[in-house]
Design goal:
Helices cover 30% and strands 27% of the residues. With 495 residues, the protein is an alpha+beta fold. Helix 1 packs parallel to helix 4 and helix 1 packs parallel to helix 7.
């Protein structure tokens, strides 16, 4: 790897996603992992709509979808009584479903694709120390035989999980707590009257039971077991205990077999305040961990990677100043706060123990999610289609967007940006405006940018598909000012 490349610590879904995006944009990459092989345990099993949209730009969405189970519906139930139903098929996306896929398969597909880009994971290799300068990072890598070597990189990214070596070396506090309650996780085969097109969430009087269909008769089960009765971890459940819990809280007439993974865990809710320092960054579980409610964790981490990759690529290519990298922590830390808050709220709601509180909860949720606008908002939130960077320094609205079109910082539903081999902005405007800006800023604007704006106005769309600038038709000075600011690292708005 050249000294202007990126060193990635951790080859889970987040690290692999980052490596793929960087290589797609032509950035040299080295990715290391302490483990000898990919994990055989699937901690995360859902890839949501927005993540699939972003993977589509790298040509990976179809492979992921083919390996998983498309689940277009979700239900919240209390026994046989339906409290609420969600229909992801209504979402305005090319991927209107939850893709339920074992993490092992996700990592296999990503790693195999990375190999086609000329990069292999360096396994049984760990980073033991690093130093930083204004121009990059020098890191010490240790192989399985104890041999050490020094490597140089322009940037270092810690995608090395909740016990991140990179985070510890930075001295960042991982603020939060561990909930003193036990949870059950099981991957097994289920048979009986249960479909594979719906995520089932049971709010039983004794606790929550969630069932995720992975396809071909395989299911993921998550359930809370109540307050922890001991300091240490609870013993792993047996198959009989899992099946009994399903019968008690969920659908009837179900049999279980061939357990793939049976374990217990406790929820950690922690997050760093800043996602980077200088040329060193954190992504995924190294920066944030939270309740599995909503299945947002892995998706949030992979979207950290998508956000950081195009910024590193632009700086690497000389198209933007290093100041652009500051926006990564600003944008993704705000998203992390939101995801952590939402996951905590969903978990607390599901774990109500008081019978009266449970009855009130069920009635309120039944009524509220019966309202189409509220239900659609909940579906968009789960699909991560409502993530915005409205308060980012990269989001500028000179004029309000027309009608119901996205404002600066919001996702543009039509996939027009970030489709090529370079991290470039896309300009949408009246005839001649996009071409003029592409000619003036070839290092920032895609030459294939279009003359078909989503509405009246001049739009600049970021490489990750979020709107950067909304201006009036013909307002080339605002567009030029925006691109000049990005290119020179000058502040667009207050950082």
């Amino acid at each position: 790897m050249a000294e202007d490349g990126v060193l990635i610590c951790g080859a889970g879904p987040v690290g692999l996603t980052l490596a793929i995006e960087l290589r797609r944009f032509g950035v040299p990459v080295r990715i290391i992992d302490k483990a000898a092989a990919r994990t055989d345990r699937s901690k995360a099993v859902v890839i949501w709509c927005r993540s699939l949209e972003l993977f589509a730009r790298a040509g990976l969405a179809d492979s992921l979808v083919a390996a998983g189970n498309k689940v277009p519906h979700g239900s919240i139930l209390d026994g046989a009584e339906t409290i609420a139903q969600l229909d992801f098929a209504e979402l305005e996306t090319l991927y209107p479903f939850a893709l339920v896929i074992p993490q092992t398969e996700t990592e296999r597909i990503l790693e195999e694709h990375l190999v086609t880009l000329g990069v292999s994971v360096e396994r049984q290799t760990e980073m033991t120390a690093f130093t930083t300068s204004d121009t990059g990072v020098s890191a010490t890598l240790r192989a399985a035989d104890g041999a050490e070597r020094q490597v140089a990189a322009a940037s270092l990214v810690g995608c090395d999980g909740a016990h991140s070596t990179v985070r510890h070396a930075l001295g960042f506090n991982f603020e939060g707590s561990t909930q003193m309650s036990d949870w059950l996780l099981a991957d097994l085969m289920l048979a009986g009257p249960i479909g594979e097109d719906r995520i089932l969430i049971y709010w039983h009087a004794d606790g929550i039971l969630a069932i995720f269909p992975m396809g071909a008769g395989r299911f993921r089960i998550v359930a809370d077991l109540g307050p922890a009765q001991q300091e240490g971890p609870r013993a792993d459940p047996t198959l009989a205990e899992v099946v009994a819990l399903v019968a008690e809280r969920g659908p009837q007439g179900i049999t279980g077999s061939n357990p793939i993974w049976l374990t217990c865990f406790r929820i950690n809710e922690r997050k760093v305040e800043h996602y980077g320092q200088g040329r060193v960054f954190l992504a995924g579980d190294a920066a944030h961990v939270h309740s599995p409610a909503g299945g947002q964790g892995m998706n949030t981490g992979m979207q950290d990677a998508f956000n950081l990759a195009w910024k590193l690529a632009l700086v690497h290519a000389g198209g933007a100043g290093p100041k652009l990298l500051d926006s990564y922590s600003i944008e993704r830390s705000a998203v992390g706060d939101l995801v952590l808050s939402n996951a905590t709220r969903l978990t607390d709601m599901a774990l109500l123990r008081n019978p009266l509180a449970q009855a009130v909860r069920n009635s309120v949720v039944h009524f509220v999610l019966g309202l189409s606008q509220v239900r659609r908002k909940a579906e968009r939130q789960l699909g991560e289609l409502d993530i915005t960077y409205a308060k980012s320094p990269l989001s500028v609205s000179v004029v309000p967007p027309p009608d119901d079109l996205p404002d600066a910082g919001e996702r543009l539903p039509v996939p027009v940006a970030g489709l090529g081999a370079r991290a470039l902005f896309t300009v949408l405007g009246n005839a001649g405006e996009p071409a003029a800006l592409a000619a003036e800023y070839p290092h920032l604007v895609d030459a294939d940018t279009g003359d078909d704006p989503p509405g009246e106005g001049l739009w600049i769309v970021r490489p990750d598909g979020y709107v950067g600038l909304v201006a009036a038709p013909g307002d080339l000075p605002s567009a030029q000012d925006y691109l000049e600011a990005v290119g020179r690292g000058r502040r667009l708005v207050e950082w």
